[in-house]
Amino acid sequence: MSGYDLSRFAINQITTPKWSMPQAIEGYVSQGIPGIAVWRNFLDDHGVEATARHLRDAGMWVASLCTSAWVNETDPARLRAAIDTNKRILDQAAAIGAPCVVMVVGGLPAGSKDLGAQRARIHDALVELAPYARSVGVKLGLEPLHPMYCGDRSAMNLITECNDTIDALGDEATSLVADVYHCWWDPAFERELRRAGPKRIQTFHYCDWLVPTRNLRDRGMVGDGVIDLPRIRGWLDDIGYDGPFELELFSEIDWWERDPAETVRIAIERCGPLVAPRK
Amino acid sequence: MSGYDLSRFAINQITTPKWSMPQAIEGYVSQGIPGIAVWRNFLDDHGVEATARHLRDAGMWVASLCTSAWVNETDPARLRAAIDTNKRILDQAAAIGAPCVVMVVGGLPAGSKDLGAQRARIHDALVELAPYARSVGVKLGLEPLHPMYCGDRSAMNLITECNDTIDALGDEATSLVADVYHCWWDPAFERELRRAGPKRIQTFHYCDWLVPTRNLRDRGMVGDGVIDLPRIRGWLDDIGYDGPFELELFSEIDWWERDPAETVRIAIERCGPLVAPRK
């Protein structure tokens, strides 16, 4: 094994998309990684019960279920359906022991340019989902997405806004999913991590920002980019954060093309020093 | 001609990179566009005096000179040289009648991951350049660049920060260059345009955000993307802004490959309604 204490380390399943759910579980555990962030497509393929059983048998913990259904619908019936789908996703999360569903809420609705209306729609959807999330014991994990995804993937783009929403909806229903890729550039990043505090930070995502960045799914392996990860890890220790560290790589033209076992091996080498327990 | 009142309309020269300076001047004027934002590479090729004469003879006004030299240098001598270069660029702007130099200040220095130090370096450079800018009557045009350029092109990414800097350095030395591409996603965009007010907004850049966006130089022609430009134009009218509207397209795989005369023709069709004088 690696020699690193990996007890806080999870791999986000989207990092190894060539692997099915069983392959990912076995692939991570066999190299000593105890945590996983589950994606819905792999969960649906393998089935919720089979996945829950496999995770238990493998002794893995689950950092999160990724991701929510988009709520970028202007038609009331379709918006209602999206909210109901999110309740079913919260149920799935509960069934596999995931403490949160990562809320990636969609960008602008098709044919709409009204960003303010979409942000209001997102807020209203979260308000409606909060009691349900509390009732099933799974949090709405608010993840600010990089502003370059505002048009399509999520119009919730600033960590400050997510903290405001957690203030409004309470930390029994909501939590913060912070990702260096989305937030590293934000002058408010450190301040808002401190504002959230150890209780509200649900899970923390690592990867790196490449220079140059070739497309909008070109995240770098930890150490290959320009983000000062040791400094950020230092903030988290100072805050008292003791939750998971996840590696999440969207990498169409590089890591997604590689042998997943090799990706996991390199992930451990690179992330090992950054996922150690607090001293 | 187009039938639109184009008196406030400029094309930013990077939109038609196949054209030399004389070709751009003639190409814009021949279709009725009176304004230009000048780029240094074309200016250096044609020469400052020749360009100034050509612009005068053509009856064109200049929105800005693009762009400043990057100040992302950790070596004191190299940083000093970059600041001196920026003084020469301010001189060039004065010589061609450009009211501002667009400050694109560089991302992280080579080999550095210290974003806080780079932001302090940017601030110090602006503080040092401000008296010189005042002395030559050319403003430091602070342009917040989209967060996706923080790693390489500019670590000055939020309109709020730029307004803070203008507050600190004064509006005789500094002004705001606002671009929908960089700011459209920002929940603070409208508020900060109002905060800047008509006096501090130097020039206003149009283009569009494409969904999908294929790489980091894939800006869309006005109307081809998801930005609500009529709404934003409405804010500017409400504020009392009466300065230039510029089209600026970075578009490696589309518009930069086209015939520039065709780009200008389409630009007029698309931008015409959005550049009219205030009623």
TrEMBL record, chains A, B:
Gene3D superfamilies to which the protein is assigned, alphabetical: Divalent-metal-dependent TIM barrel enzymes
GO molecular function, one term: isomerase activity
Pfam families on file: AP_endonuc_2
Domain Xylose isomerase-like TIM barrel residues, every copy: 42-259
KW Isomerase (keyword) present: yes
Signal peptide start and end residues: none
SUPFAM superfamilies with a match to the protein in the record: Xylose isomerase-like (SSF51658)
Organism domain of life: Bacteria
Keywords per UniProt: Isomerase
Protein name in the entry: Xylose isomerase
Lineage: Bacteria, Pseudomonadati, Pseudomonadota, Alphaproteobacteria, Hyphomicrobiales
